[in-house]
Amino acid sequence: MAPDRLSTSQLLRTVLRSCDARRIGIALLITGSLATPLVAQPSPRLGHVMTSAGPSGGVFLFGGGAGNIPRTVDSLWLFTESRWSAKSLPGPQGREMAAGVYDGRRNVFVLYGGSGLGTRTKFGDTWEWNGRVWRERSVLTPGPRDHHAMAYDEARGMAVMFGGRNANSGTFPNETWTWDGAAWSLADTVTGPGGIGHHAMAYDSRRQRVILFGGDGPDRAATGDTWEWDGRKWERVATDGPGARTRHRLAYDSARGVTVLFRGTDRKLGWRKMGEPQYWELSCQLPINTFNRSGVPSTASDCARIASAELQRLA
Question: What share of the chain is helix, strand, coil (3-state, %, to 5)?
């Protein structure tokens, strides 16, 4: 029997798994079955950015650390149907631990911040890809930072960025910034998740909330808090489910109205991979938010179907 080729969802699951401390090949199926690599594909990497490609369908992948002697790369890739294509055009310098989202109102991929391996460069720049060219936005920014997270607030038409490490001070500011396509604005918030990095964010389109889970702070202790942003303030919600972790991923399944959490690590235990379970689902049916343990997927598509559906959903 001929080896199976990678489906979109299988590939996305592999990419989601590559966020942990091990470099896992992007175009290799990790389910025990054989896979045929694609002719053109990104190299194995970690610390990259991955987000929806909008109305055209597919997924963008940018940057990350690659190679046996890690170096940051500046390549932008687009995955559609069953093939990767490289967008070899001038743009942002190579970086890892940046964050990005697809702005569905303006139809651009927004990239912010990150850091360079080897060069120790910390970036505080704002870039946008419109499907043809990169454009650096010459605006006042939140400053150089990495290990932050972003989500696109569809209802309010702006990207929401939280936390990360400030390269100038080395601190983890408890700051929420929004980008409307013209300027960055610091939200006036009294409460919030606190100074953290390595957290994950996703947008719940049904309830028009940004969901934030986990991360670690200056004391390097992982957290297991769940927060929601309603466009004005953060609220810590009552949940029961995943343990404290970092370097995990969130995606929203709009068809079923649940936020999905996948994997992660616990820094207190020496970057132990979280093995229980492989993913969780947050059912946000008011007034109670509840995390439910989901069974270990029997195939790659069982898990990545959820991430794939949201990543490719039109914003």
Answer: 10, 40, 50
Nearest Cα neighbor of 235 from 200, 209, 206, 205 is 209
Q: Which residues share a beta bridge with 112?
A: 99, 126
SS3 annotation, 65-134 = EECCCCEECCCEEEEECCEEEEECCCCCCCCECCEEEEECCCCEEEEEEEECCCCCCEEEEEEEECCCCE
Instruction: Select the more confidently predicted residue: 266 or 81.
Output: 81
For residues 297 and 279, the answer to whether their CB atoms sit within 8 Å is yes
H or E segment to which residue 305 belongs = helix 300-311
pLDDT tens-digit series, residues 48-79: 999 888 877 788 999 999 877 778 999 999 99
Q: How far apart are CA 192 and CA 188, in angstroms?
A: 11
Q: Please state, in angstroms and rounded to a whole number, the distance separating the CA atoms of residues 163 and 201.
A: 11
pTM: 0.76
Identify the residue whose tokens are 């929806």: 52
Query: Is residue 133 a contact partner of residue 154, using CB atoms and an 8 Å limit?
Result: no
In this structure, are residues 84 and 42 in contact, taking their beta carbons and an 8 Å threshold? yes
Q: β-strand 272-273 against 279-285: which pairing, if any?
A: unpaired
Kind and range of the H or E element at 203?
strand 200-204
Instruction: Fill in the amino acid letter for 183.
Output: A
State the DSSP string of 28-68. Answer: S--SSS-EEPPSS-PPSEES-EEEE-GGG-SEEEE--EETT
Q: Which letter does DSSP use for residue 200 in this model?
A: E
State both tokens at 166: 């400030």
Q: Tokens for 217?
A: 């702070």
233 closest CA partner among 284, 283, 180, 162: 162
